[in-house]
Amino acid sequence: MKKYWAAILLIGVFVLLAGCSQQATPEDRLAAYISYWNKGEYAEMYDGFLNDGTKQAYDKAQFVDRQQKLKEDLGIDGLEVAYTKPAEDAKWEEEQPADFPVQVKMNTLAGPVEFEKTMTLLHETQGETEDWFVEWDPSFIFPQLEAEDEIRIDRIKAVRGEILDRTGKGIAINGGGYNIGIVPEKFTDDKKKAELAKLLNQTVEQIDAKLGQDWVKPELFVPLAKIARNNTEVLDKAIAIPGVAAQQVAMREYPYEEALGHLSGYIGSITAEQLEERKDEGYTTGDQIGRQGLERTFEEQLRGKDGMRIWIDKPAEGVEPITIAEQPVTDGETITLTIDAELQKKAFASMKGEPGTAAAVNPKTGETLALVSSPSFDPNEFTLGISGDRFKELEADPLTPLFNRFAQAYAPGSTLKPVTAAIGLEAGTLKPAEGLEINGKSWQGVTRLHPEAPNPIDLNKALVFSDNIYFAQQALKMGNETFAEGLKKYGFGEDIPFAMNLEASQISNEGSIDSEGQLAATSFGQGQMLTNILHLATMYEPFLTDGIMYKPTLVLDDKDAQVWKEGLISAENAATLRKGMRNVVVDGYAQSANIPGVALAGKTGTAELKAAGEERGKENGFFVTYNEADPTLLLAMMVENVEDNGGSDYVAGMAAEVFK
């Protein structure tokens, strides 16, 4: 019997000990609760940890849904919840609440939030479970938040930075335009809808849809379309229709329109794809973003950073709102370019809408003064939201105004000859005064335009008469390796160090010269050689700087005269080439550039683009020039399809207009 009772007692002790080992402390419960909190598992927090009083005060939807929505709406991430550990000898009485200091940290759209509160756990029985449970209220979401309060978020839009030219003239500015719309009670002639729709590049159905919106009332202005401030023709015709009105609105403006269209680019509404790519950068639906040109290149600097404020809106009358977090607005930077907008406008106009491109640099500093693509488009149309029909019209234009030509590379033709000569002069294989006997129109597959050039042909005559055979023979004297290495010293085969993406110039598709025929063709800018127009202008700098080629800069604050290449040509050899290029204009075939009062010097070039089997192909005409008396503007220009317009001299005349 004694053994029996001893066994019963032992079992009782084991049961008691087992019960004690399963009983969690309030600290254990709090640690588990905080673990779910940090993971945002609100349903688990509600079901397993909240005390009866909390559940009676707040149903599950109030607890779970509200916190999940706030996490999404306020961009809450990086949540870190911790608690201050109690003393090691702390004892917990079931009849007494257990209090713990709890620290909460998080990041929001408006910046970091950090606070500390005391969390209380109560010991109670819920169903068959006896344990410690958390006493909760909304202030554990944000301090001073109560059940009936609303959380608000204000977004203060950053002002987009402007783009200015070197003299402070606006290239992309925060200007204004007009919202054209209808006041329904005053628009009494429905027949006028068709007229208005045509003016605004819309359909009558689109106008009716806007007039049929839920909020529309007879006396309210209903906006239909935005137009640029300078579109006075549409404005005047629209407001002449009874019931049609115009309201001034802020909008991005591009004062130089087509002249700088490809350079400035434009902004537009962010697409769903862009929004997904930039979801961590603070962009939201409806934001404007740089879509092309400098607007896209400098998006990060121009955009700025919106201000944000998260605050508690108290329903009680007279109670001040409580700010939870605030991030001040940072407006975008104003970017001043090296570009001279008036010079660019003049260069663009001189090209008369012909397809082509032009680049101008200051050869003493490397500053880019103009970067033209012709024909072009008006970026104001795009930033306002171009119609589908208008976009199709631009796409279908055979002159391809949407194609950015200054970013491309083209065969430079004879404009490469001064570079070829410079490489030969420095290699010692070309003697400028040494004449070659060249007879006839062709030699080993190389043809010349002016077989009438009197022998012997020295460097000066070769430049004046643009003699392909002379330069082919000089390249053969140099050899493939010397000539190719010389071209690489001028930047062929490497990225152009420029703020915008430009296609690199190439010696050939493979980057090398592999035959005598290819060597000959490359010497006068044909074969597989391609050159970007800005790089072409930059390559002429060493002839004016005695051997230095500068990095082409675009932002005025960038350091001037950053050396890209140096030691390219001696002062003596540079002077020889300068004299020859002046004679090209005075005695040669760039007579359209031989204008009074401006001593232009330079080199013409014609690149033939002939498909297999064609007797005669298309020709791109080039001219690179500068004013000998004031060599602070170096202009390179290319015009497509000049074969019936007088060739490269046609381009020389256009370039001369810029210097006039």
Automatic annotation (TrEMBL):
Q: Where in the cell is it found?
A: Membrane
GO MF term set: penicillin binding; peptidoglycan L,D-transpeptidase activity
| Domain (Penicillin-binding protein transpeptidase): residue spans on this chain | 356-658
The name this protein goes by in its record: Penicillin-binding transpeptidase domain-containing protein
Main localisation: membrane
InterPro entries (UniProt xref): Beta-lactam/transpept, Beta-lactam/transpept-like, MecA_N, NTF2-like_dom_sf, PBP_dimer, PBP_dimer_sf, PCN-bd_Tpept
Q: Which PANTHER family match?
A: PENICILLIN-BINDING PROTEIN 3, PEPTIDOGLYCAN D,D-TRANSPEPTIDASE
List GO terms (cellular component aspect).
plasma membrane
Q: Which residues form the signal peptide?
A: 1-24
Which protein family is it in?
Belongs to the transpeptidase family.
Q: The Penicillin-binding protein dimerisation domain covers which part of the protein?
A: 156-312
Occurrences of domain NTF2-like N-terminal transpeptidase (ranges): 25-148
Listed under GO biological process in this entry are:
cell wall organization; response to antibiotic
> Which keywords belong to this entry?
Membrane, Signal
Origin species, per record, is: Planococcus glaciei
An example of a Pfam family matching this protein is Transpeptidase
Coiled-coil annotated residue ranges, if any: none
